[in-house]
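Exercise 7. Predict the structure of FAS1 domain-containing protein from Roseivirga misakiensis.
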Amino acid sequence: MKTQKIMRSLFGAMFALMLTTSVANAQSKDIVGLAAGADNLKTLVAAVKAGGLVETLQGDGPFTVFAPTDEAFAALPKGTLDMLLKPENKDKLVAILTYHVVAGKVMSTDLSNGQKAATVNGQKVTVSIGNGDVKISGAKVIAADVKAKNGVVHIIDKVILPPNM
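Solution. The predicted structure, encoded as tokens:
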């Protein structure tokens, strides 16, 4: 009995230490490093590289990035991603990627229903909050407030397209 209590306490302490270490490691990485270390953001990292935005998103910021998952990119119409990753379509790719970035560090607690946020490409995204969900221009936030040393990442389930595309 006493051994079980000790083991549970030890396990709890180890879990807390691992969680703290994981959060600390995330906060020591910039946005690109954080995304590169995530299993579900590989396509985003490839797109950021193709768009020539790595240095920008490694900069001081702060930035808020609404990061589409690999599944979100896979849900685009067939051939869209391949087309966007071609060098001749870099301007379109950059327009889409920068539509996912807001200057400043915007935490989920800073968001309000109906709020419009200016993206770095000059267009605005709209925040919708309801039924326990937060959506950014229709894309559901599936993981919020992932802190990086130069901003924050909110992982979303869709690629959001600027209104002019």
